[in-house]
Amino acid sequence: MAKKSSIEKNKRRQAMVLRFAARRAALAATANDDSLSMEERFEARIKLAELPRNSAKTRIRNRCEVTGRPRAYYRKLGMSRIALRELGSQGMVPGLVKSSW
Questions:
Q1: For the chain, which domains are there?
Q2: In this model, does residue 100 exceed pLDDT 80?
């Protein structure tokens, strides 16, 4: 199980990304618009840089929904390999069969 503080920090980041998504997208579109003047684009870049760092989508860490583990995360299932194996062994994941040879 991951530290509670790490899990909560990631949840706060996810909430902040949602809160600033529209503002960030508008500023990015302005900054990348070639039809605008360089001054307007530069101002948009400055405003984009002034937004909180944790409002950037790339700051979110994929974590296992079951254990909070940050590594060996399967996007399709939303959990780590260890949690998947445990739930698969208990028969909780439909269609998953533990291989043995």
A1: 1-61 (1.10.287.1480), 63-101 (no CATH)
A2: no
**Residue 73, φ and ψ in degrees, nearest 5:** -95, 125
Report phi then psi at 81, rounded to 5: -65, -35
pLDDT in tens, 58-92: 999 999 999 999 999 999 999 999 999 999 989 89
Which residues is 79 bridged to in the sheet? Answer: 74
Burial of 27 (0-12, 13-18, 19+ CB in 10 A): buried
CA distance 88 to 82: 10
